[in-house]
Design brief:
30% of the residues lie in helices and 28% in strands. The chain is rod-shaped and about 175 Å long. The termini are far apart. By secondary structure, it is of the alpha+beta class. Strand 30 and strand 31 form a beta hairpin.
Length: 804
């Protein structure tokens, strides 16, 4: 630090003129840490005052005009018995204008040369001198030893003084840059954060003009002494004022916090990574979260490339020969060489010698100047590569940066692997659901149908609700809706068992109440394992029950027979839009065992709408179930809307946005009828002549229907069936012929004896009737009724389906 020493005062009258306390903007910067000047009194040979400095006025209170011409003894006592204060100094008493006595140390300097002045008397107040010496010691330490960078700018915002620490930052001595503006020293610098001043000039101007004080502003810039190095300082700015409050300038103190700042950034980055990476079970979203976290705070550009098998939920093959897909690309400062933010995933390849190819070959990370490639690994399996690029202020990767990249990628690998596993499991679950639920409702003539399924587990996409449409003999159709307790895969597995069982039992033409009874037995056996046994399997069947409704509709008689096991009744909507809930016996839920089920039968005119649904559609916590049922009936009461439109309306009204806390299934059925022209019924006596009569009736009706080519085979079929009924059954017989999607022949009798298909030997006179029938028709079977049984056959109609 340069110190200014005392100097003789100018003896000319101009020496008595007071100077300004603060240099105006544009003036030469004044050193604010120079010690105050001593009070100078210029004396002539007679001891009269001929010069009076501004410091003398400050010390003794007399102006130059009041002091010049008076004897010095009027202001300072002559030397007396006071001890000496140092070489050339004496202790004296000085008299202030207000009457106070001021103890001063006086030093006299003789003058030679032309002019009236003979000597100069310098006065320093003892207290001021001691304070000046202490301040000088403090300032000397701040100027030469403090690690805190100190700089003082005048009111024109020009650098007036700086300490040694500041010189080291700039890389030049103060003399080389004194008088420069801060923006010239740090041209690319900026304050970090969104609050406070944006530039150095703004900060200093607000300090000088408004008296604001800024503490701990984080300023980032290139180091003036090393343009390739960026540093961060904690800066504070405050006014410099004299004793009378006049502004001298602004003081800046700056402390290098780069290591602390970078450590805080690393911790913040890891915290952000923990908050955002791995929160999604989608592979692509997890990969993009890595890029979002790393840009721009850690890298200028980040790309994430994954093995194509990972996106499908599979396990990548060993080695580096996989197909690579870029799923994320994020750049903080897009340029011609930097990828734009990622859109849809796309395939990429790596040229020979590229950092990515070298990483695949070595199995580790590769650092190439401003590029860092880190492999994504989980349990030894290579999932992909993450490439970090730095440019501009983020130029190179040091050891800390490489370690941070490894930590980020490790977290990303865990999240991506979890998402990969979930993707694979979800694909398997959806495949299971597709197998368990009907993908296309079968063609049949009894009803028009439409359905919707909405699982509560929207992550796995599977649940325990289901519906089904099952074609039955005699142009009838079976309608099923069920709800398994629970959600997810366990419920879906149980649902699959029940759906398969219902389909198998329905094809046996069992009555609805009998179907539910057998389902109850099946589910009771399936869940009857003990807790110990369930604990031994990886996915125990936790299902404790299910509800189900099974209905059979006959388009010939227009009657519907149904039974329910703890399930909600259906909605029947008439053609005029009115609706009702049929009074059906409730029945117990499936799985309880031992309790009976009852069926009810009622007529459904053609064009009636039957809605079968699970409770997830109408029952929610904040709405009474009765309200939900009324809403469903109202929505379905539009006779002009088609079934698909009504399904969507019902879900939009009752499950807005697809939100559901329970699985939801909805099956809408609009009934049809087969007109009398497509059905022929004859009553026949149980006598041998009835076989010939049946042949004649069938041949004549097929000729009328234009199906004469089916007459020979059909006549033989009904002849064999009537003959068997006459031989083995009792009571009157009924022959029915139905022209539907196939030709249906039915022979009913009053017994429950089950027919058997057997192979007769060459010596047998009979027993070949059913074998002949089976060879002539596409399907045949038996169904039982309260009054007996019916043996039925189906023969395909000639020609394409569109011509039938």
């Amino acid at each position: 630090m340069k110190r200014s020493g005392p100097a003789p005062a100018d003896p000319r009258p101009a020496a008595g003129v007071r100077t300004a306390r603060a240099a105006p903007p544009g003036a030469e910067p004044r050193d604010p840490v120079a010690p105050p000047a001593a009070a100078a009194l210029v004396l002539d040979a007679r001891g009269s005052v001929i010069g009076w400095s501004p410091a003398a006025e400050d010390l003794l209170g007399h102006t130059a005009a009041e002091a010049v011409g008076r004897p010095v003894s009027a202001f300072v006592d002559p030397p007396g018995g006071e001890p000496a204060t140092g070489q050339g100094r004496t202790a004296r008493a000085a008299h202030h204008r207000d009457g106070r006595t001021v103890r001063v140390a006086a030093t006299e300097f003789p003058l030679s040369g032309p002019g009236p002045a003979s000597r100069v008397l310098l006065l320093e107040e003892y207290r001021q001198r001691r304070l000046s010496q202490a301040r000088l010691a403090l300032l000397d330490a701040l100027a030469t030893q403090s690690p805190l960078g100190l700089a003082v700018y005048d009111r024109g915002l020009r650098l007036a003084w700086a300490n040694a620490a500041h010189d080291r930052e700039v890389g030049r001595p103060l003399a080389d840059y004194r008088g420069m503006h801060a923006e010239d020293l740090y041209p690319d610098g900026a304050f970090l954060g969104s609050r406070g001043p944006r530039t150095l000039t703004e900060a200093m101007r607000r300090v000088i003009d408004d008296g604001e004080v800024f503490v701990d502003l984080h300023f980032r810039s290139r180091l003036p002494s090393d343009p390739d190095t960026h540093r961060v300082w904690s800066c504070s700015y405050y006014r410099l004022q004299d004793a009378e409050g006049r502004v001298l300038g602004v003081c800046e103190d700056a402390f290098d916090i780069t290591p602390r700042y970078e450590a805080q950034n690393r911790l913040a980055l890891l915290a952000e990574a923990g908050r955002r990476i791995g929160t999604s079970l989608d592979v692509t979203s997890t990969a993009r979260a890595v890029a979002d976290v790393a840009v721009p705070g850690f890298a200028s550009t980040v790309t994430v490339d994954l093995d194509a098998a990972v996106l499908a939920g599979g396990v990548p093959a060993p080695g580096a020969g996989g197909t690579w897909v870029r799923v994320a690309a994020r750049s903080g400062a897009p340029s011609a060489a930097a990828p734009a933010d990622a859109g849809s995933p796309r395939r990429v390849s790596y040229p020979e010698g590229s950092p990515q190819r070298r990483s695949l070959a070595s199995g580790g990370h590769v650092l190439a100047e401003d590029t860092l490639v880190v492999p994504l690994r989980s349990g030894g399996t290579l999932l992909g590569l993450v490439t970090f690029l730095r440019s501009g202020s983020l130029r190179f990767f040091d050891t800390d940066a490489v370690g941070l990249a490894d930590e980020l990628v490790s977290r990303a690998a865990l999240g991506i692997d979890n998402a990969r596993r979930f993707t694979g499991e979800r694909a398997a679950a959806l495949a299971l659901q597709r197998q368990l639920l009907p993908q296309r409702l079968p063609d049949q003539s009894a009803v028009d149908v439409a359905g919707r399924y909405l699982p509560a587990d929207d992550v796995a996409g599977v649940g325990g609700d289901w519906f089904d449409v099952i074609p039955l003999s005699g142009a009838r159709v079976g309608l099923v809706v069920g709800d398994v307790v629970g959600h997810g895969l366990p419920a879906a597995a149980t649902m699959g068992r029940l759906r398969t069982a219902v389909e198998a039992l329905a094809t046996l033409d069992l009555a609805p109440d009998e179907v539910l009874t057998r389902l109850d037995d099946l589910l009771g056996r399936g869940t009857g394992v003990g807790a110990d046994a369930a604990a031994d399997v990886p996915y125990p069947d936790v299902t404790t029950g299910a509800t189900c409704l099974y209905a059979v509709y006959d388009p010939v008689s227009r009657r519907c027979t149904m039974a329910r096991a703890g399930h909600l009744p259906p909605v029947v909507v008439h053609r005029d839009g009115s609706y009702r809930f049929p009074d059906l016996p409730a029945g117990p839920p499936l799985g309880l065992g031992g309790l009976p089920f009852e069926a009810a039968s009622f007529e459904l005119p053609a064009g009636s709408l039957l809605a079968l649904f699970t409770d997830g559609l109408v029952e929610v916590r904040d709405r009474d179930i009765e309200q939900g049922l009324r809403t469903l009936g109202r929505v379905l009461g539009d006779p002009s809307a088609d079934l698909d439109e009504l399904c969507d309306r019902a879900l939009d009204e009752l499950r807005p946005g697809g939100r559901t806390a329970d699985d939801t299934a909805l099956l809408l059925v609009r009934t049809r009828e087969l007109d009398a022209g497509r059905v022929a019924v004859w009553d026949l006596p149980a006598e041998p002549a009835s076989a010939g009569r049946a042949r004649s009736l069938v041949t004549a009706r097929l000729d009328r229907w234009g199906l004469g080519e089916l007459a020979p085979a059909s006549a033989l079929v009904v002849s064999e069936l009537v003959t068997n009924a006459v031989r083995h059954a009792e009571g009157p017989l009924q022959l029915r012929l139905i022209r539907d999607r196939a030709l249906l022949c039915e022979v009913a009798d009053t017994t429950h004896t089950s027919p058997h298909l057997r192979h007769s030997s060459a010596e047998d006179e009979g027993g070949r009737g059913l074998l002949i029938v089976a060879r002539l028709v596409e399907r045949w079977g038996t169904r039982y009724t309260p009054s007996g049984k019916t043996i039925w056959t189906e023969q395909p109609l000639p020609g394409p389906p569109s011509a039938r």
